Amino acid sequence: MGFLITTLIFVVVGIIASLCARMCCNKGPATNLLHLTLVITATVCCWMMWAIVYIAQMNPLIVPILSEVE
Question: Where is the signal peptide (predicted)?
Fold first, then answer.
């Protein structure tokens, strides 16, 4: 459930950032396309980093070894 909700949050933030970039930096179609591409790429990269860290915690590769203390 947490994965889906956070993914939706990333989508909403990406849409809001795309709209802000389009409204604030409206200098022509080529520039708008560049800004949109940069915002979408940044959003996807941030989501992928978060998703990899989130999924890596589900099944850790290194298992702690408990020592027996008397």
Answer: 1-21
